[in-house]
């Protein structure tokens, strides 16, 4: 569930310095910092070579209900600061919430914002909140990005308390790896604060505002890798101690005591994991701290990521179980008859049950011996029949007959092993007339794992939408009608998930809708192999593989980064 901060604005970055009074007043009056408000932080102090460029004070005069590109309807202004504004908006075409940054086209930083947004979009790394659009029109520049309603800002997470060691380890590991990948592409963040980190409902951490948040505020740095590494160290420090590692309070966290400098996390809070505490100090050594064991400082996200990987594994906490209530015996217990009760204690109730008298008469003795004789006879007869069956089976084996032969009649027939079905032809299925890669369908059954049929790259996903594309697929010709019970599909891209369904298409170029075709099997995978199977085979000659969800994949020689998939090999069984 998304969290919403009650603070009007975060007043600090990398030190918690207060913004200028005029700017602070403007933000307090007009803006709020939300989980998905994107860019609700206050101005960042100049530090370690970082510079702030001047900008006009006025932001575009827009209001709720205004529509951009006849598509994005502005709903709520979450930040109005330094000549730009940030909004929660609705993408009416895809019917989903998005975030939008807006600034005048003549803003001093408009060109830089467009360039940063486009560079960030090309990265296509799912660990970052994705830029969906970057446009200049009608004297406005706007950047559209993802809005994650199921994610929680790290500011809200830390407000509830420090993270346990395994969770803090996941935080620094995921953030340092993501920023390593970004810096390899020449992208820096420069505003890695708790409000820039989101934790999803699945426990994954995602970073918002890569390059864009700094460009909106005109922040640059002569040492971007060092600045981002120190920021990750501050995040880890705060996660371990619930304190901000600078003197001023920031992000709802209390700063360190004034005049004592940066002290080790285990001196701030008892029970801090020693290895993680030293790691935070190594990352914060850029600001003059000294690692507690004199290890070298981590000055780049890659160095920090390697240091995290070299740590001993931190296991997740063991689940706690509540002991069941102690079993309460009833007053009527075994062996309670004839027991003397303790002094002063009431005698146990017998519920009015009186045991029957023993059979002591002559008739009783006759009945007792008669029952015993019948039991002995029954045991003897059963033993004789058992021995006879065993001897009979042994003789049958000695006569050379099949000892494992199953009797016929009600026994279920043996299950047949599936056999591979040959593919004699294939054709791409595009009911909307928008082809994907029709000339490459034969690559999916040529026996060569290096060749493939590919889809186009889509901005939305993993699930495809009726709004832009209901699905993509290929129809295969099996040469003649067969009992089809499944397929094995080798895929080029793993991650997120791929969902595909097997249909009886009825023809190599079917004219009907997919929903009208008999379904054979369906399934999903996050791996590079998808196996579809059914317990009830379907007689078919023409079989459609229809893909309705695809994972996020990086840019390649054929398409840009986005949600896409490619089939390298298909095998049908019957």
* Major sheet attributes: 8 strands, antiparallel
Q: Helix segment count?
A: 10
- What is the CA-atom radius of gyration, in angstroms? 36 Å
For the secondary structure, the number of strands is: 23
- CATH class membership of the largest domain: Mainly Alpha
Q: What is the number of domains?
A: 3
CATH-derived architecture of the largest domain: Orthogonal Bundle
Bulk shape? extended
Percent of residues in beta strands: 15-25%
- Which stretches of 5+ consecutive residues score pLDDT under 50? 1-49, 329-344, 394-410
CATH T-level fold name of the largest domain? Transferase(Phosphotransferase), domain 1
CATH superfamily caption of the largest domain:
Transferase(Phosphotransferase) domain 1
Overall pLDDT level: 79
By secondary-structure content and strand pairing, the structural class works out as: alpha+beta
The termini sit apart by: 46 Å
Give the proportion of residues in helices.
10-25%
Could you walk me through the main structural features you see in this protein, from its secondary elements to its overall organization?
It contains 10 helices and 23 strands. The chain has helices at 21-30, 110-123, 154-159, 165-184, 212-216, 224-241, 265-268, 274-284, 301-309, 362-398; strands spanning 51-52, 67-68, 72-81, 84-91, 96-104, 131-137, 140-146, 152-153, 197-199, 205-207, 219-220, 243-244, 254-255, 420-421, 425-429, 453-454, 472-491, 498-504, 519-525, 529-549, 552-553, 562-563, 566-573. The strands form 6 sheets. Strands 14, 15, 16, 17, 18, 19, 20 and 23 form an 8-stranded antiparallel β-sheet that branches. A 6-stranded antiparallel β-sheet has the order 2-3-4-5-7-6. It has a 3-stranded antiparallel β-sheet with strand order 8-9-10. It starts with 20 loop residues before the first helix and ends with a strand. The relative contact order is 0.08. It folds into 3 domains: 21-146, 2-Layer Sandwich (Phosphorylase Kinase, domain 1), CATH 3.30.200; 152-309, Transferase(Phosphotransferase) domain 1 (Transferase(Phosphotransferase), domain 1); 420-573, Galactose-binding domain-like (Jelly Rolls), CATH 2.60.120.260. It is extended and about 100 Å long. It has 574 residues and is α+β, with helices and mostly antiparallel strands.
